[in-house]
Automatic annotation (TrEMBL):
Residue ranges annotated for the MIT domain, each copy included: 16-94
Origin species: Mustela putorius furo (European domestic ferret)
Annotated protein name in UniProt: Spartin
Source species taxonomy: Eukaryota, Metazoa, Chordata, Craniata, Vertebrata
Any GO molecular function: lipid binding
Main subcellular location: cytoplasm
Low complexity bias locations: 128-137
Length: 182
């Protein structure tokens, strides 16, 4: 194809490296502007990145004479460029069809299948976990719990509990009844 540059690296490897470098520069610019909501500018960066990706991929690196660490590195770069090309094309397609906002709106309308729990804060006392097999408990003014008589057998209380030397530790998640002070 071309002559070898002065540093001894084949021109094809140099083309692959240059395309790789420029492609990811534009793809990253596209991602950043996409996240900022500047969709038209992002599309332009993505298209430029795709051009460089295609150029880098088009160089043949599988010839029998293409051996050595430099060629192996070039083949790895080309593989990464192929994967990136698929992702960028998909994102560009979404932007060009205007699906980004409609997908976001659709996702907001999907009913939540799982309850959302507030983040655990160790400093606050979280509610005691209730077991489906244990009877309902009612906390009295003095902090004791009483069991309503529903005919169910109370859950065993002989589970291992955290030592009293660490009162801030919460009981294990599988404990059907919380220890006093937790």
């Amino acid at each position: 194809m071309e002559q070898e540059p002065q540093n001894g690296e084949p021109a094809e490897i140099k083309i692959i490296k240059e395309a790789y470098k420029k492609a990811f520069l534009f793809v990253n610019k596209g991602l950043n502007t996409d996240e900022l909501g500047q969709k038209e500018e992002a599309k332009n960066y993505y298209k430029q990145g795709i051009g460089h990706l295609l150029r880098g991929i088009s160089v043949s690196s599988t010839e029998p004479e293409h051996i050595g660490a430099g060629w192996e590195s070039a083949r790895q770069m080309q593989q990464k460029m192929k994967e990136t090309l698929q992702n960028v094309r998909t994102r560009l397609e979404i932007l060009e069809k205007g699906l980004a906002t409609s997908l976001r709106n659709d996702l907001q309308e999907v009913p939540k299948l799982y309850p959302e729990f507030p983040p655990k804060d160790v400093s606050e006392k979280s509610p005691e976990p209730q077991s489906f097999s244990s009877p309902p408990q009612h906390t009295e003014a003095n902090g004791n719990t009483s069991t309503a008589s529903t005919g169910l057998v109370p859950a065993p209380t002989s589970l291992s509990l955290p030592s009293q030397s660490h009162p801030a530790e919460a009981p294990p998640a599988y404990t059907p009844q919380a220890a006093e002070g937790h």
